[in-house]
Amino acid sequence: MTHPDENRIIASSLVYAYPDAQKNAVDDVSMRVKSGEFLAILGHNGSGKSTLAKLFNALYIPTDGTVWVCGMDTRDDDLVFDIRQHAGMVFQNPDNQIVATVVEEDVAFGLENNGVPPKEIRVRIDEALRAVNMSEFSKKAPHMLSGGQKQRVAIAGVLAMKPDVIILDESTAMLDPSGRREVMNTVHRLNDEEGISVVIITHYMAEAATADYVIVMDEGRIAMSGTPREVFRQVDRVRALGLDVPPMTDLAHMLRQDGLDVRADVLTVEEMVEEVCRLSSKM
């Protein structure tokens, strides 16, 4: 096995079947999440991506195969508590994750359950709220916050546990565009500045385009994998798997079909502007 310092999560020949299901929800998946990596997992509904996330956090135990989280086997009941400290999960609906009536009490919840000393709890609450730019809301009631703010509080609650990996399972799905942007900016900053590995399960291609690496799930298996450029430039293949591509990649695809010499792996507006300027300078 690879040294756990290099890999935060290792899945080996992973299989998961729901009771009475005709086929496996996750079917022979092997992959890894490296230290400091930002990984996006994509797939249409029922592809197995959310099941995979829950296997990474020991919410589900494999039917077959193994998941190691920071060197710990998720099958070991005695380690589940530790595993969830190392790999924190942020879910789709922030209201399901917020348990207290005051923001800072919510962030403290996991720490108090873990028996962290009160002085240390105070320090960690302040650090976590500062990291998600929510310090000024520490005394507020969570139900008074916007969706994006609530989700940042949920991330702060995970952060306070000092995890190695944060897993976001469709965590922006219920948010408006500005809330989505808030959450994505927050997790990117935590990834860049704190070196926390991030696994994001998403159906927003623009979010996936900002990842280091992308895995596309289909029928419980890995159908495609690579950098966002490597994956999204294969527009027809991505579409055949029931997914879209980032808007600028789509535009590049259409321009190429019209005979224009545009790069196939354009991901962002800035890159498209560069391509248009390059083309117009040749005219």
Question: Overview of this structure, please?
Answer:
- The protein is an alpha/beta fold and 283 residues long.
- Helices cover 41% and strands 20% of the residues.
- It has helices at residues 49-56, 80-86, 94-97, 103-113, 118-131, 147-159, 177-194, 205-208, 228-232, 235-240, 247-257, 269-282, and strands spanning 7-16, 26-34, 38-42, 64-69, 72-73, 87-90, 165-169, 197-201, 213-218, 221-226.
- The strands form 2 sheets. The protein has a 6-stranded mixed sheet with strand order 6-7-8-3-9-10, with helices on both faces.
- A hairpin with a 2-residue loop joins strand 9 (213-218) and strand 10.
- It is globular, with a radius of gyration of 20 Å.
- The mean pLDDT is 92.
Write a brief structural summary:
The protein contains twelve helices and ten strands. It has helices at about 50-55, 80-85, 95, 105-115, 120-130, 145-160, 175-195, 205-210, 230, 235-240, 245-255, 270-280; strands spanning about 5-15, 25-35, 40, 65-70, 70-75, 85-90, 165-170, 195-200, 215-220, 220-225. It is globular and about 70 Å long.
Can you lay out the helices and strands and say which pair or pack?
Elements: E1 7-16, E2 26-34, E3 38-42, H1 49-56, E4 64-69, E5 72-73, H2 80-86, E6 87-90, H3 94-97, H4 103-113, H5 118-131, H6 147-159, E7 165-169, H7 177-194, E8 197-201, H8 205-208, E9 213-218, E10 221-226, H9 228-232, H10 235-240, H11 247-257, H12 269-282
Parallel strand pairs: 3-8, 3-9, 6-7, 7-8
Antiparallel strand pairs: 1-2, 1-4, 4-5, 9-10
Record keyword descriptors for this entry.
283 residues; alpha/beta; four-stranded antiparallel β-sheet; 12 helices; 41% helix; 20% strand; globular
